[in-house]
Design goal:
It is built from 12 helices and no strands. It has 274 residues and is mostly helical.
């Protein structure tokens, strides 16, 4: 007969993985819950980060703190431009590395990882030295930040799209061309739809990295202030609750994008299965 201790042991064993997973998820989402909660906070003092009362005024006037929306707008502009350029160049580079054989291909495959492996302080100081040597020392700002962000986002795009391309079944493209599709038609109707999830993921990753970056940006920004630099600056005098509104909105936008992509993927699977 099974004793109570044996039954307890089996129950713990069967639920241990589930409990561990839930704890990990809780650990990951607690900071997000705090940010959402604080976006409705009406603090008695900006120097004490605690929930003192519920209010909607932070959402009603998110641009109340001086300079916050300007810095936010600047970060979004840089993030979007860096995402577009890095995604375009990185996708082309990924196709070249996967589909073509050329001299130096192995070195390129290795070199593409170096910006990802380098500490941000090293990359930021190297870029600063480059800009100063090129005569941009007194003109650091929006464009030098953009160039720096494109550079470090490029590696992540190449690696992400290349992984998607490497797993692509060539027989699908050959089948399309056997059915008299031209190269352009094959690319537009077969290759691009199959690679698109990887490109979209790389673009989202690039925007997130660009929007979030502080170290490289701080070294190459001059007098320009981005949103992470604004938060770092005001943190010494007390973080305004509107910063949590921005964080909550960014989180909700990310959730909507992920859910939309997942819904689209399931619809495509149902169409293919039907």
């Amino acid at each position: 007969m099974n004793g109570p201790l044996q039954r307890l042991g089996r129950w713990v064993g069967s639920h241990l993985v589930l409990a561990g997973g839930l704890l990990v998820l809780l650990y990951m989402f607690v900071p997000i819950f705090v940010v959402v909660l604080m976006s409705f906070n009406d603090p008695d003092s900006r120097l004490i980060y605690r929930f003192d009362g519920f209010t909607l005024k932070n959402w009603a006037d998110p641009c109340a703190p001086d300079g916050m929306c300007g810095a936010l707008s600047r970060s979004i502009q840089i993030g979007l431009l860096a995402t577009v350029v890095a995604t375009l160049l990185g996708t082309l580079m990924a196709f070249a590395l996967v589909r073509h054989r050329f001299h130096g291909r192995s070195a390129a495959n290795l070199g593409i990882f170096l910006p990802m492996a380098s500490p941000e302080i090293v990359m930021g100081s190297s870029l600063l030295a480059l800009f100063v040597a090129a005569g941009f020392g007194g003109r650091l700002g929006f464009w030098t930040i953009l160039i720096a962000h494109i550079m470090f986002c490029l590696s992540f795009v190449v690696v992400t799209v290349r992984a998607r391309l490497a797993g692509l079944d060539d027989n699908l493209e050959q089948a399309a061309m056997d059915l008299y599709a031209t190269e352009v038609q094959t690319f537009r109707r077969v290759t691009l739809p199959l690679v698109f999830p990887g490109i979209l993921g790389a673009a989202l990753l690039s925007f997130s990295l660009s929007f979030d970056d502080f170290i490289i940006t701080n070294l190459n920004a001059g007098n320009t202030t981005t949103f992470p630099m604004y938060v770092w600056g005001v943190a010494q005098r007390g973080v305004p609750m509107q910063v949590n509104v921005v964080g909550t909105v960014m989180f909700l936008v990310s959730v909507v994008i992920v859910v939309a992509v997942e819904v689209r993927r399931r619809r495509q699977e149902r169409v293919l299965a039907g």
